Amino acid sequence: MENVIELKHVYKSFGDFQLKDISMTVKKGFITGFIGGNGVGKSTTIKLMMNLLQPDSGSISIFGLDHKKHEKEIKRRIGFVFDENMFYSHLTFAEMKKMIRPCYMNWDDSLFNYYVEKFELPLNKKIKSFSKGMMMKASLSIALSHHAELIIMDEPTSGLDPIFRREFLDILHNIMQDGKKTIFFSTHITTDLDRIADYITFIHNGEHIFTKKSYQIQEEYAIVKGGMELLDRDTEQEFISIRKSNAGFEALTANKARVEDVFGDLVLIEKPTIEELMFYTKKGAK
């Protein structure tokens, strides 16, 4: 299976923060959700991919090409959708399109017009008048109008209402149907990834925890609930972290089969959400 993005042993330091030995891949033709708490290195990793920051060591390749030596070629094949407004707000959307179009050899006006109509975007209104949802649609229409093979999104659904978030996810699902595009999707809203992600890449405190298929997480990880009498020094070692209360304990394990062997029918075992995975991993690190 072809890797669209590859990071190998990447390090980057900023004062007290450090990305440590990040090695990860993004598979072609799938949606990869990129998760982690605030300040753990998600935006830094994306900036490194985009050659907006330079790694202290390690290598980064996109489409099999060195991300520095082939930066222009790579960026012509990538679409970007960010939480922040990346357009000139005093221009109309039509004027902004005229500025952007020459940057892409594969720009397709008919495709742009298709998405403008589909997303009901006003071409002749100034961008500063666009709502948050309209801005996301505008960014996505630009990203798709030059036949981008890789779409990188940094918190695209942040601040959107639940109805539009659902609509936005449906749009992403539909554009993936040809099997030729790849989406790398960073977000704090983990329920979005529960709906659409094929793979999940999880980083914490500057370290790559895992990249797994979504169904693997459900098979390997579990939330375990039981009585406090089941816990001792040995059984607590089965868990990434534990939350204790007068009613009992709730914990995360990365080895569901092992917990089933150890505790049998004495505990309740549930599928974890991505949010629970992040919460308990952070709790365990503390």
UniProtKB/TrEMBL annotation:
Source domain of life: Bacteria
Keyword Transport assigned: yes
Any one GO molecular-function label of the UniProt entry: ATP binding
Annotated ranges, domain ABC transporter: 5-230
SUPFAM superfamilies (alphabetical): P-loop containing nucleoside triphosphate hydrolases
Keyword annotations of the record: ATP-binding, Nucleotide-binding, Transport
Xref: Pfam families: ABC_tran
Coiled-coil blocks: none
Name of the protein in its database record: ABC transporter, ATP-binding protein, YtrB like
The species this protein was found in: Bacillus mojavensis
